[in-house]
From TrEMBL:
<keyword id="KW-0805">Transcription regulation</keyword>
<keyword id="KW-0804">Transcription</keyword>
<dbReference type="InterPro" id="IPR036388">
    <property type="entry name" value="WH-like_DNA-bd_sf"/>
</dbReference>
<dbReference type="Pfam" id="PF01037">
    <property type="entry name" value="AsnC_trans_reg"/>
</dbReference>
<dbReference type="InterPro" id="IPR011991">
    <property type="entry name" value="ArsR-like_HTH"/>
</dbReference>
<dbReference type="InterPro" id="IPR000485">
    <property type="entry name" value="AsnC-type_HTH_dom"/>
</dbReference>
<protein>
    <submittedName>
        <fullName>Lrp/AsnC family transcriptional regulator</fullName>
    </submittedName>
</protein>
<dbReference type="GO" id="GO:0043200">
    <property type="term" value="P:response to amino acid"/>
</dbReference>
<dbReference type="InterPro" id="IPR011008">
    <property type="entry name" value="Dimeric_a/b-barrel"/>
</dbReference>
<dbReference type="GO" id="GO:0006355">
    <property type="term" value="P:regulation of DNA-templated transcription"/>
</dbReference>
<dbReference type="GO" id="GO:0043565">
    <property type="term" value="F:sequence-specific DNA binding"/>
</dbReference>
<keyword id="KW-0238">DNA-binding</keyword>
<dbReference type="InterPro" id="IPR036390">
    <property type="entry name" value="WH_DNA-bd_sf"/>
</dbReference>
<dbReference type="InterPro" id="IPR019888">
    <property type="entry name" value="Tscrpt_reg_AsnC-like"/>
</dbReference>
<dbReference type="InterPro" id="IPR019885">
    <property type="entry name" value="Tscrpt_reg_HTH_AsnC-type_CS"/>
</dbReference>
<dbReference type="InterPro" id="IPR019887">
    <property type="entry name" value="Tscrpt_reg_AsnC/Lrp_C"/>
</dbReference>
<dbReference type="Pfam" id="PF13412">
    <property type="entry name" value="HTH_24"/>
</dbReference>
Length: 153
């Protein structure tokens, strides 16, 4: 899909604040409400806008420990990977799961828990019990100077 300056402006504004009303969005990009709404609908239908979410404050929820976990698998088969991926998709503490290259690990997980006890429970009761997990190496986040969900346009 070819994006013009209006489309890019809409996407930039919605990435920053998805609660903008169509009227506010139209005013900010310099279009009337009807064509603005048509553009937003087209961006949604094309799949460029994947959804709308509220960004929650982890600390306010008592989730103070974020970690990245490198996971190694015992066998590199589609069945092993599918099994692992389906299991981690059901673990609420897993924020992201990536199949990676260039490391000794096969997967990189981004997880969030309340504290070290919560991390231990997650690791010992959930992640290491998944069939095929042969190695786990963890790194704990001390600070996140850049933390964005906005895509470069």
């Amino acid at each position: 899909m070819q994006l013009d300056r209006y489309d890019k402006h809409i996407l930039a504004l919605l990435q920053n604040n998805a609660r903008l009303s169509n009227q506010e969005l139209a005013e900010k990009i310099g279009l009337s409400p009807s064509p603005c709404l048509r553009r937003v609908k087209r961006l949604e239908e094309s799949g460029l806008i994947d959804g709308y979410r509220a960004v929650l404050n982890a600390r306010a929820l008592g989730l103070k420990l974020m970690a990245f976990i490198h996971i190694s698998m015992d066998r590199h088969t589609p069945e092993r990977f599918e099994n692992f991926e389906s299991h981690v998709a059901g673990i609420a503490e897993v924020l992201e799961c990536h199949l990676i290259t260039g490391q000794e690990a096969d997967y990189l997980l981004k997880v969030i828990v309340e504290d070290m006890d919560g991390f231990q429970r997650l690791l010992l009761e959930k992640i290491t019990r998944i069939e095929g997990v042969s190695g786990v190496h963890s790194s704990f986040v001390m600070k996140s100077p850049v933390n964005s969900t906005a895509m470069p346009l």
